[in-house]
C-alpha cells in the first residue's frame, strides 16, 4: 500500500461503487492487506464541541480514542463562537422561575427552521441538554449568572460561557481530556478517506499527518499536497465531527451563487466541505445541504465573528434597536430568528449599500457581562457616544428621525408591545434607550452555520441511502449532520446539538 | 463477474472510496476484465424529454445509442405532464407582438427561484429554447395556436402541446427515434451502477434487464430483486436523464419530514432517487437537493397530475379565481409562482381542512383548447354549474361573499389592477367571471418537481467534488440536475431545461 502515491490515490478515489463492485473479490482481499500504522477503538474527526464530547464519553468507558484535527489548533469554530448553550429545564431556569419544556424548545426550533426540522432529533437535543450542561460543568466550564434570552426563543434558556466565548467551554473539555491516558490528540492531521471492510462497515481511516493547512490556497481540500499518509484502525467506530462548510468557497457557491468568494464568515478557515463529501461517497444521505445561515449580528469593521457579534447578541438586539442609517428608522424585529433578520439586513446592505446601525444605552451594557463591551470597545467596532446627537452624527443618521424612533421604541417597551415589528419587548426587562453614554456599531450578516449535512438517527449513527439503516461503524455529530435545525437554526442551539449528539455517539460506540 | 450476486454487489456497493483506494491495483486490473454484454457509444438513462433529446442529437451525429428505461413504458413524467414549453424569441411571440428577452426569462426564473438559481445554466436554457422548439417540431410535435401566459412569467412565452399534454411532444420524438437504426430502446431495464476506468472516467454501466418495477413496494429501489445483470460499455459517455425524486418516500422525507408516505404526487411511480444517489457516490456535487416543489393546480378528487391540473393552469388561474370555500374570499395571487401559491393553499388545506375552490366562467373555457375542459369534465374533477348560486351551494361557499368577491374581481380586471393580491389581471385578456355556465374544481398542491440534483456545467457535464472539473464520460440533463430552477421553478420551464441540456449533452459527447 505504501506505494500508492497521493496522486494515484486521488485518482482511484474518483472511482466509484461501480468499478469497486467489479473489483470486489480483490477489494475484500485487500481489506486484510491494509497495514495499519496505529490502532484505536474510536477515531474522532474534528476537535470542536461534538468531537470533544464524543471523546470524553467514549474514553470514560475505557475506549482508546484518537482525535484527528487538521488544523494547528484544537477547537474549530467552537473555540471562537459566542459560548451560548440553550438548556431546557436547567437549574438556572428553575432559579429564575422560567417555565420551559421540551415541546416549547421543539416548537421554537421548528418555527425558525421553517418546519422542515427532523423532530426526533430535536427532541433528543432538548431532552438531553441538561446532561450536556452537566458534562461540560464536570470538566470545569463556568457560566454567567443570568440566562440570556436570544432571538426566536420563547423563554430565556441560554447559558452564556463566563468568558463570553466558546473557549470557556472548549478549554476545560480539552484539559479534561488531556488528563486521560487513553486519549490521543493529533493536530495537523487530516482525515482523507474511509476504510471499509467487505461488509461495508467503516473500520478505519486514511489520514495525513503533518498536514499544513494553507489559508492562502483558494481551495485547501483539493490543492494542498502536504502531509504523510497513515492508516488508523477504528475497532469500534469513526465519529464524524468535523463541522460545517461556511468557508468552502466552491461548495457554498453551488448552494447559493450569490455568495462571493470573498464573502466574510464568522468561521475559522478550516471549515470546508471535504469530510462531508467523503461521507456522501460511502452513501450517507444528504439532508438540507442547500441551507446556509448568515449570522445577523456581525460587524463589517472587523473580520470573522470578531468582538461585535457577542455585543449585539447580548446587548443591542435585546436591549436596543437596529436602524436604517439613511432613515433613522427601525426595519426589523431585533429578536426575530436569524434568517428573518439576515434577510432584512441584506435588503439594506445590498440594495441600498447602507450598513444598519445597532444601538443601545448604558443600562443595556450594565446588564451584560463587562468583558463583552470591553472587548468590543477595545477592538474599535463598538463606539461610545455621550449623546444621541453625537451618535447620529458619527453614522450620518438623520437626528430628528432617530430621536423619534427611540422615543417610539421606548414607549413600546413601556407598553410591552411592538406594533411595528413584533419584537418581544417584554423580554427587554424594561430597559429603554435613555441613559448616556450610548453605544453604536455597524451591522452586517456573515456566513455562520451550514444547516445541512449527513442524516443521523437518534443514536448518532449515519444513515445509508442504500439500506436506510445505519452504516456500521460510522457516527456523526454537530454541524456536519443535517436535519436538527431545519432551514435556519436558532442562536445557542448549535452547542447543545454538538454536545448532545457527540455524547450519544460516545455512549453508543 | 457473472458470479457476483446481486446481494454481494450491493454489499460491495456500500464500500466507498477508501477501500477501493486500497484495492487500486486490483481494481485497475479488473477494469480490463469486465466482460461487456453490449457496446454503445452513448448510454442514456431515462426516457423523458432530456433523454430523448440527448438520444436524437447524439444519434444524428452517427453515434450508437441505447436508451435505458426501468419502467414498462417510455416517457417518464414527460408523457403525463402539461406539455408546456417556455420559449424566448419564439415565432409565436413575434406573431403576437410579445417583447421578450433572455434577460427577462432569467429575471423571472431568478425571482421564483429565490435568487439561488445558477445564472449560467439559466442563460443557456433561455438562449437555446428556440433550438429545442425546432428539434421537437422537426420530430412532428404540434402546438396550440396561442401562447399561454403562466404564473410568474412577465410575458406570454409558453407553447402548449396541441393535445394539452407532454405526450404530444414525447410521442413524436419517440417515433422519430424508432426510425433511427443506430438507436436501441430498452424498457424494463434499470441502471444499477457506474463502471469507471482507472482514471475515474465513466466507461459503462451495470444494468438489470427484465426489471419489473413494483409500485406495491414501499421502496422499489431497495426492495426489488427482479432483473438480470448486464454490462453495457459506453465508449463516449453516459447521460443521466432519469428525472427527479418526487415519489421516493424515504428520500423526500429526509428533506421535508412533513411529507407523509401517502402524500400524492403528480409524478409517475418510477420517480425515485436511486440514480441521483449513485451519482453522489462517484463524487457528483449535490445542489439544492432540499428544495421540493408542489404543483398548486392539482385536485384532491383524482390521483396524480390528472385532468384538473391543466384546466387550472390554463383556465381558472389565468381567467378566474381561487377562493377559500369557508369564506368565499380570494386568498392569493392566482398567477404567483408555484411556491407562493402552494404555501397559500397549504395554509387552507392543512390549517383549516378546507380545500380551496378554483372558479371560472364559459368565456375562460372558450379561450382554452377544448380538450382540456372536456377531459376534466369527463373525469368529474371539474364541474359545470348554470349559476353562481348552484356553484356556491355545491361547495358550501357563502353565496353573498362569493358574489361580492366575483364582483370585486371583475372590477379589478376592468381596472387592470388587483390591489388585494397583485395578480397581473392585465394578462386575463379582459375576461371577467360573468358568462354562464360556471366551472368549479377543488384545489390541492401535490408533489411535482424536485429542484435539486447534480451540478452540471453549460456543456451538460457532471461536475466532481474532487476536482471541481467534469467527471469524464458523465453527462446529465433535466430534473436530475440542480441549479437551473433555484428554490422554485416556474411552470413551463422544465421542458426547455430538459430539452436544451439533453440536446447539449448529445452535442458534446
TrEMBL record, chains A, B:
Supply the alphabetized keyword list. FAD, Flavoprotein, Oxidoreductase, Signal
Name of the protein in question = Flavocytochrome c
Which PANTHER family does UniProt cross-reference here?
FAD-DEPENDENT OXIDOREDUCTASE 2 FAD BINDING DOMAIN-CONTAINING PROTEIN, FUMARATE REDUCTASE
FAD-dependent oxidoreductase 2 FAD-binding domain boundaries: 41-495
What cofactor is this protein dependent on?
FAD
List the PROSITE patterns hit by this protein, alphabetically.
TAT
Say yes or no: keyword Lipid biosynthesis present: no
Q: Which residues form the signal peptide?
A: 1-29
Matching entries from InterPro entries are given as: FAD-dep_OxRdtase_2_FAD-bd (IPR003953), FAD-oxidoreductase_2 (IPR050315), FAD/NAD-bd_sf (IPR036188), Flavocytochrome_c (IPR010960), Succ_DH/fumarate_Rdtase_cat_sf (IPR027477), TAT_signal (IPR006311)
Task: Give the family per the record.
Answer: Belongs to the FAD-dependent oxidoreductase 2 family. FRD/SDH subfamily.
Q: Does the keyword Signal apply?
A: yes
Recorded GO terms, molecular function?
FMN binding; oxidoreductase activity
Amino acid at each position: 500500500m505504501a506505494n500508492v502515491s497521493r496522486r494515484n490515490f486521488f485518482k482511484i478515489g474518483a472511482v466509484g461503487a461501480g468499478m469497486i463492485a467489479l473489483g470486489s473479490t480483490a477489494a475484500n482481499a485487500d481489506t486484510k492487506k491494509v497495514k495499519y500504522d496505529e490502532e484505536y477503538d474510536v477515531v474522532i474527526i474534528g476537535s470542536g464541541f461534538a468531537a470533544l464530547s464524543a471523546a470524553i464519553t467514549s474514553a470514560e468507558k475505557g475506549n482508546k480514542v484518537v482525535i484527528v484535527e487538521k488544523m494547528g489548533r484544537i477547537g474549530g469554530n467552537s473555540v471562537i463562537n459566542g459560548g451560548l448553550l440553550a438548556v431546557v429545564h436547567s437549574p438556572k431556569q428553575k432559579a429564575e422561575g422560567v417555565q420551559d419544556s421540551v415541546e416549547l424548545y421543539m416548537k421554537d426550533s421548528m418555527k425558525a427552521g421553517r418546519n422542515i426540522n427532523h423532530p426526533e432529533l430535536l427532541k433528543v437535543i432538548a431532552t438531553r441538554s441538561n446532561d450536556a450542561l452537566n458534562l461540560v460543568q464536570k470538566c470545569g466550564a463556568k457560566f454567567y449568572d443570568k440566562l440570556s434570552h436570544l432571538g426566536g426563543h420563547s423563554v430565556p434558556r441560554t447559558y452564556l460561557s463566563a468568558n463570553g466565548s466558546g473557549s470557556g467551554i472548549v478549554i476545560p473539555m480539552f484539559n479534561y481530556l488531556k488528563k486521560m491516558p487513553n486519549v490521543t490528540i493529533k493536530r495537523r492531521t487530516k482525515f482523507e478517506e474511509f476504510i471499509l471492510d467487505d461488509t461495508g462497515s467503516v473500520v478505519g481511516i486514511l489520514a495525513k499527518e503533518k498536514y499544513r493547512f494553507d489559508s492562502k490556497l483558494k481551495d485547501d481540500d483539493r490543492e494542498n499536497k502536504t502531509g504523510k499518509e497513515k492508516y488508523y484502525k477504528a475497532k469500534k467506530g469513526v465519529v464524524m465531527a468535523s463541522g460545517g462548510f461556511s468557508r468552502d468557497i466552491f461548495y457554498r457557491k453551488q448552494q447559493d451563487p450569490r455568495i462571493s468568494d470573498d464573502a466574510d464568515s464568522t468561521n475559522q478557515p478550516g471549515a470546508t466541505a471535504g469530510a462531508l463529501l467523503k461521507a456522501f461517497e460511502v452513501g450517507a444521505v444528504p439532508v438540507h445541504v442547500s441551507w446556509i445561515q448568515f449570522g445577523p449580528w456581525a460587524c463589517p469593521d472587523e473580520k470573522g465573528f470578531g468582538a461585535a457579534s457577542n455585543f449585539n447578541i447580548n446587548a443591542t438586539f435585546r436591549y436596543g434597536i437596529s436602524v436604517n442609517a439613511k432613515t433613522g428608522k427601525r426595519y426589523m424585529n431585533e429578536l426575530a430568528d436569524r434568517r428573518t433578520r439576515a434577510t432584512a439586513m441584506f435588503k439594506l446592505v445590498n440594495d441600498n449599500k447602507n450598513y444598519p446601525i445597532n444601538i443601545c444605552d448604558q443600562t443595556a451594557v450594565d446588564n451584560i457581562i463587562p468583558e463583552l463591551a470591553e472587548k468590543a470597545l477595545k477592538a474599535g467596532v463598538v463606539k461610545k457616544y455621550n449623546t444621541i446627537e453625537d451618535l447620529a452624527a458619527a453614522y450620518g443618521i438623520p437626528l430628528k428621525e432617530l430621536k423619534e424612533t427611540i422615543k417610539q421604541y421606548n414607549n413600546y417597551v413601556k407598553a410591552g408591545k411592538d406594533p411595528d415589528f413584533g419584537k418581544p419587548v417584554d423580554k427587554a426587562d424594561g430597559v429603554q434607550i435613555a441613559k448616556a453614554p450610548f453605544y453604536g456599531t455597524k451591522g452586517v450578516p456573515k456566513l455562520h452555520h451550514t444547516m445541512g449535512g449527513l442524516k443521523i438517527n437518534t443514536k448518532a449513527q449515519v444513515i445509508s441511502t442504500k439500506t436506510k439503516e445505519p452504516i456500521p461503524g460510522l457516527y456523526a455529530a454537530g454541524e456536519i449532520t443535517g436535519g436538527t435545525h431545519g432551514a435556519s437554526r436558532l442562536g445557542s442551539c448549535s452547542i447543545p446539538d454538538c454536545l448532545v449528539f457527540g455524547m450519544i455517539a460516545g455512549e453508543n460506540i
